[in-house]
Amino acid sequence: xxxxxxxxxxxxxxxxxxxxxxxxxxxxxxxxxxxxxxxxxxxxxxxxxxxxxxxxxxxxxxxxxxxxxxxxxxxxxxxxxxxxxxxxxxxxxxxxxxxxxxxxxxxxxxxxxxxxxxxxxxxxxxxxxxxxxxxxxxxxxxxxxxxxxxxxxxxxxxxxxxxxxxxxxxxxxxxxxxxxxxxxxxxxxxxxxxxxxxxxxxxxxxxxxxxxxxxxxxxxxxxxxxxxxxxxxxxxxxxxxxxxxxxxxxxxxxxxxxxxxxxxxxxxxxxxxxxxxxxx
Length: 280
Prior knowledge:
Elements: E1 4-5, E2 15-23, E3 33-47, E4 50-53, E5 60-63, E6 73-81, E7 83-92, E8 108-111, E9 116-120, E10 129-137, E11 142-149, H1 151-154, E12 155-157, E13 164-166, E14 170-174, E15 178-184, E16 195-203, E17 221-224, E18 231-238, E19 240-250, E20 253-266, E21 271-273
Parallel strand pairs: 1-4, 2-11, 9-13, 10-14, 15-21
Antiparallel strand pairs: 2-6, 3-4, 3-5, 3-7, 3-8, 7-10, 8-9, 11-14, 12-13, 15-18, 16-17, 16-19, 19-20
C-alpha cells in the first residue's frame, strides 16, 4: 500500500473544499450493544497517484450508534486540489494487537452491562481504510460528502480468541445528490417481542438469496425497523432503482427473509415513501 505524503499542495494548484460528514447504517449487533466508539486521527486523499494527509483535519471521536436513521456528524471542511476523486482514506486510533491496547483504547465496543472491548485492526491502523465513491472537487467551491461507515459489515468476532475485529466498510455519497426511502412495516404487530426486522437496500438486480447466510454483504445500506410503530428509514442513497429486502431476526439471530420489494425509485433530494407488508 502506498505511503502517505505530507507534502502540501502547491499554492498555484486550484483548490476546493470537501465538507465531510459521517453516518452509520444501523447494525444487527443486539440490544445489549450501547456504543461503537471510533476515533479518526487523520484523513488522506489520493492526488496525482500519491496519498496525501489532509493538514486541516482535527481528530474526532464519536459513537457510531448515535449516527443512524439519517443522522450524521460533521467531521470538518477539508481543502483538496481540484479534480476527480474515487476514494479517501480514514486513519483510526485502533490497536493491532493486545500489547497496543493501553496506548490505543479509543476504538471500542461497549455493552449495556458496562463491559468494553477494544476493536482490533488486523491489517494495521497506520495505513488507514479506504472509503470508496466518486466525487469532484471544483476550484473555489464546496461540496458536501457523507461517508457511510457500515458497522453491520465492519465488526467481526474472531473465532477462538473472541476478539472484536474492525474491518471498516465505508462508502462515499455526494450528500446533495442523494435521496432516501422511508416507510412502515404495516404488519409489525404480528411479530413476537424477541423478534427484530431489518430492511436492506440493494441496487436493482444485485440481490441474491445466497447472501442470507453471510449477512447481506452486497446491500448498499440497512435500517432497523422500529418494532413499536413499524417505521424505517434508509438514508443517503444515490439516485436510482433499489430492491428492499426485509429480514427477520430472533434474539439477534437471522431467521429468514420475509419480504422483497423491487423497483423502488430514489430521486435526488427527495424522500420515497414505501410501506412494506411481510404477510403478503
